[in-house]
Structure formats: C-alpha cells, structure tokens
Design goal:
heterodimer; A: mainly alpha; 11 helices; elongated; B: mainly alpha; 6 helices
C-alpha cells in the first residue's frame, strides 16, 4: 500500500471535487481512504473508534478541499488532519473511558486476526506487541518511527513537552524489546 | 549496542508491517454515514446544551452556598436619607457606616421566616450560636453606653456586632438558597 504522505491527486480531479462533482470525490476517496484508515487504525486501535475518526477526517477533507494550497502532496495534508483527529480522540476523557471498555478489541489486534496466514511470524508478533502498548505510547511510536515526525513535532501535536514524547517512545521500545526477548516470547526472535 | 540493534530491527519491522487488513468501508457507506451525521450532531448538541445548563446552574448555586454570595439586603426605610447625609470626620463616620450596615442586615433578617421550611440541624446550631453572641454584644453595648464608655470602645463593639450580623446573614442566605433548591 502506498504511504499516505506520498499520495497525490491531479489538479483536474481536485478542482472537479472542489466544484462538488461526486465522481471526482469518489476518485479521491478511493485513492486516499485505505492509507488514511490504516494510519488512523494504527493510532487509535479499536476498529469502531477508527471508523468514527476516519469518517470525521474524510468529511473534513471534502469540506476543506478548497483550502488545500498544493504546497505538499494531498496525502501529506490529509495525514495532518488524520493525526490531529486521532490524537484529539485519544486525549478526550470520554473516549478514554470508552477505550477502556473496549478491551476485547484492544487485546486482540485486528490486523493479526484478519491476515495471520499472510504475515511473517515476526510481523504477527509485532502486531500483538503493538496491541499491548498504551494508545498514547503506540501513537508516539508510530509517529516517530514510521511517519518520521520529530520529537518536537510530536510534542506539539500532543500539546506536551519534548520529554513527554521521548519518554513515551522509550517506554514503547522497552515494552517491544521485552516482548521479543527469548525468555519472554520463546516462539519468536528478531531476524 | 545490542539494545540499539534490536531497536533498529523493531523500527525496520514496524515500517514493513502491511496495512492491507485494515480496509475502510466503501464510498457509498461513507456517504450514508455523512448524511446521518447532521441528525446525530443536532441530538448531541441538544444534549450538550442541556448538560451545560445543568452544570452551570449547579456551579452557581454551589459557589453561592460555599462562598456566601452577598445577599444584598434591601435598604431599610429611611436608610436612603441617612446615606445622603454628609459624612462626619474620622471614626464617627466609620461608626455610623457600621451601624447603617448593621441595620440593613437586621432589616433583611427580620423579613425572613424565623426558621426555614426544612431545618438542618448543623445550620440551625450555627444560627443560634450567632444569635446568642449578637445578644451578648447587644447587652455589652447597652451597658457601655449607660456607663459613658469611650467612643473607640463603642466603635469596636459595634464593628464586632456588624461582623456577627454579617455572618448570620450569610448563613441564613445559604439556608434560604438550599431551601429553594429542594
């Protein structure tokens, strides 16, 4: 799957979408939806909450498409919206309560459940290890390691200090390493 | 070193994780949900407004009870005339101001029923204690006036009486608020 930040849409399609043409909007949706949802899923965790955040993100995309200045690929702009909405979800006290109640979904990561056969053993284990992380630590880890955000950018996104970002990342790494240690998980080692 | 290597391997694995399993719903489902959002948003907005109203009312009531918001007792008859009088110099002015405040509070207190509809034992005890203290200060004031005590002494006693009456007003005001909230 193409990373969200790399997805571009032609000016012609974008202008038609801005004019409200449904076909053009459908094309944009088809291009960006999978990567957007995958990113949100990584940050938010539960499927139902991810769908809510995804819906919100895509609605904002179409509402504000006229404000897009083409300074970066459309995917990069959308990534900012998706991350901002996901973090808003994670910060909300009411959502935190819901997140705790949805333990069944958090305990078993959906991607591993759905495609166990297609994944390499270490990837399955990594999916499981990710699911054991606290949502905030997982979001920081993903933003830093995969999306390439700096600690300063992560701190700004969370409205916290740089040391918050560093400590969350260190904790996430520690937990993942413990998961892969031979005595902790005898069935799996890193290649 | 070993830890660093492991970390790099984890990072590499994270970047290679496939996302294909996390498929979103299609365009038609997105449109269906988008149409459903305004109705839900109206409902949520209504509930939020209601909740905000309730919380604000409770907060105002709690603050009034906790900090004894000033009951602003109405001016007793003739008070307006007294207020317009030219102020006397120094302590005499303070003394008269304390007396005026005292009379205004007393006037407000007298308009209240002797006891609220529902008597709270703790509050009633506080009211009675304050009323007893005021009565003692009143006796002392009468005695001092009869004995031609110095003005400073009378002023101190009057101030003490005003403070006690003020406390009584606050307790009674909280009592009436609590009574009205029931």
């Amino acid at each position: 799957m193409t990373r969200l930040v790399e997805i571009t849409v032609s000016d012609e399609v974008r202008e038609r979408a801005c004019a409200g043409e449904e076909g053009a909007r459908q094309l944009i949706y088809a291009a960006v939806a999978p990567a957007t949802f995958a990113l949100i899923r990584r940050l938010v965790g539960s499927r139902s909450a991810s769908e809510d955040v995804f819906q919100d993100t895509m609605m904002i995309l179409f509402e504000r498409l006229t404000e897009f200045r083409r300074e970066a690929p459309l995917g990069a702009w959308l990534r900012q919206i998706a991350i901002s909405r996901s973090l808003m979800y994670l910060r909300s006290p009411w959502r935190r309560v819901l997140l705790c109640l949805e333990t069944d979904e958090r305990d078993t990561p959906a991607p591993a459940r759905a495609t166990t056969a297609a994944l390499a053993p270490e990837a399955i284990d990594l999916e499981r290890a990710l699911a054991t992380l606290a949502p905030t630590a997982r979001a920081v880890l993903w933003m830093y390691e995969v999306e390439g955000y700096s600690h300063a950018e992560i701190a700004a996104s969370f409205g916290r200090s740089v040391s918050f970002s560093k400590s969350q990342l260190a904790r996430a790494h520690q937990k993942l390493r413990a998961w892969f240690e031979p005595q902790g998980r005898p069935t799996c080692t890193l290649s | 070193m070993h830890t660093e290597l492991e970390q790099q391997q984890i990072t590499r694995l994270l970047r290679k994780l496939p996302d294909d399993a996390a498929r979103p719903y299609d365009w038609h489902e997105f449109q269906r949900r988008a149409r459903a959002v305004p109705a839900a948003a109206v409902q949520v907005a209504g509930l939020r407004a209601l909740a905000t109203g309730i919380v604000t009312t409770l907060a105002v009531l709690a603050t009034a009870i906790r900090f004894g918001a000033s009951p602003h007792p109405p001016q007793p008859p003739g008070e307006a005339v007294m207020a317009d009088e030219a102020p006397a110099a120094g302590g005499g002015d303070l003394f008269r101001a304390a007396e005026r405040e005292d009379r205004a509070a007393q006037y407000w207190l007298e308009r209240l029923p002797r006891e609220p509809a529902l008597v709270q034992v703790g509050t009633r005890a506080a009211v009675e204690t304050l009323e007893d203290h005021i009565a003692q200060v009143d006796d002392l004031l009468t005695a001092e006036r009869a004995g031609s005590a110095p003005a400073e002494r009378l002023q101190l006693l009057q101030q003490e009486r005003a403070q006690l009456v003020n406390s009584l007003v606050r307790v009674r005001y909280a009592e009436t608020l609590a009574d009205a909230a029931r």
